[in-house]
Amino acid sequence: MHLVHCGCVITQQGQDFKIKMANESTENPPLEKNKSVKGYASKVFKESSVSALSAIVSTANTPRKVFRILVFVLFSAGFLYQCIKFLSYILTYPTVVNIEIERPVKFLAPAYTFCNYNRIKRSKFCSKYPSNCIYPNEEFCNMYPNYCSDNSTKVPMVDSIGKLGYDDTIELGHDWKNLLIQEAWEEPDGPFLRLNAEEEVPVTCYSLGERIDDPREARFKEKEMWNVDDDEFVFDPEENDLFDPDSKPGIIFAIHSPFEAIDPFEKGIFMKPGYLYRITLQMTQEELLPHPYKTDCLNYTEIWLKSDRTGPRSQEMCRYKCVRDAFEYCVHCTDIHILYPKKTRICETDKYENVCPLVSSPGNLNLWDRMEPCIRNCKDDCLRMKFSYKVQESYITQKMMFNNTSKPSRIIKVKIYFDDSEIIKIRYRPQFQEVEAFSYIGGFIGIWLGVSLVQVADVFESIFRITRYVFRKGTSVCSSETQAKPEDNAV
């Protein structure tokens, strides 16, 4: 009985082993040597979950099969064409513009540049050049009573100002301590010269909050509770110290980015004595994208930090620096129109020698060829703030008078309001993120081929199986030939 029982157990184990081997042979069928690659491929695609492929393979009717193949090829071509066009467009790195309105707690404050429209102070001129000044006569005093307030006051002779150079303009111009009579948060930078283009004369100017080739951080305004402190200035144009009695007293005032110097005679406001100027500021911030996007901007702040806090912080100042460096190399002085801080004197008209050739040669470039490559590298700022404003002019009333004096006020008051610190932000963003591009291509596959991601994986599996079959079939043929050769030799 015991032997019979063991025999039954052995028989049962043998059957289980045969079943297991049969299952394995079903999952991994032996290489069908006589079956063609075409036949095996048809078998694989017939089993595929991709309905288009299985329908083509399983169709016995030849015309229907040709029709289905033609449709599949045309739709595949349409899918490839649309994918190629879409990818070609993506590789141009298109952008979209988003416009937002924000009220940040902290934001960049503007800079201010101001100049006395009367460029030479009469008292300074007559003190330095007494021979060019005379005491006024009665007729002159009747015409210009402000000139004769003091009997000891001299007035310049006619055409005496024509002999003055750039250095004289700086030395004899109005000092900021007399011009700005209400203390600001910092001392103004200057004096520096700007050109009054209409009169073709240089004028002494000053700036507050400007950061041109400057290691200091820019000034920021910050909300306290719900509002922002206004900026306020009080100027004295010193109209009793006019050089030319026919000139109009006043100042030129400009608002601009702290990272850009400007010419207030081009972009400023003329302000008259006895007036209050209320200026409402509006701010616009632009955010661009660097290469390879079309905006192709530069982060000048990052470059400034890497350069030990030196150099320009905007595209405009980068260009002016290129021009300044080329001028200083070629003529050993700089031009008054160049707004970047100057390291050398300003060129006097017809009093400089150009050491650079008129025509460039290898190793010896002319002025333009020195500055042009540098200017080309000055790209847009990745982040820039623009300031625009509205001006309201009104008289200074008795209650507004400075120091509560009874004399009619001849000062100039300026108040800058920050429009509830509202900033318009213009942001350039990539039109397509990586996930969006993937979704678009998936949509093309679904529309043209009706294939899901799972079915795409099935197609790749089918291709892999066919490729493996071709490889194994070739290997088997080679092995058979190798075994046949020894047998032939033995015979």
Secondary-structure map:
Blueprint lengths: L1 H26 L9 H11 L3 H8 L3 H29 L4 E8 L3 E3 L2 E6 L5 H7 L4 E2 L3 H6 L11 E2 L9 H7 L3 H4 L9 E8 L4 E8 L11 E3 L8 E5 L15 E6 L7 H4 L1 E3 L3 E13 L12 H7 L8 H17 L35 H10 L6 E13 L16 E6 L5 E8 L3 H16 L3 H38 L1
Parallel strand pairs: 12-14, 12-15
Antiparallel strand pairs: 1-15, 2-8, 3-7, 3-10, 4-5, 6-7, 9-14, 10-11, 12-13
GO molecular function: ligand-gated sodium channel activity
Membrane topology: Multi-pass membrane protein
Family: Belongs to the amiloride-sensitive sodium channel (TC 1.A.6) family.
How would you explain this protein's 3D organization?
This protein has 491 residues and is α+β, with helices and mostly antiparallel strands. It has helices at residues 2-27, 37-47, 51-58, 62-90, 122-128, 138-143, 166-172, 176-179, 264-267, 300-306, 315-331, 367-376, 434-449, 453-490; strands at 95-102, 106-108, 111-116, 133-134, 155-156, 189-196, 201-208, 220-222, 231-235, 251-256, 269-271, 275-287, 383-395, 412-417, 423-430. The strands form 4 sheets. Strands 1, 9, 12, 13, 14 and 15 form a 6-stranded mixed sheet that branches. The longest helix is centred in the C-terminal third of the chain and has 38 residues, at 453-490. The protein is elongated. Pfam families: ASC.
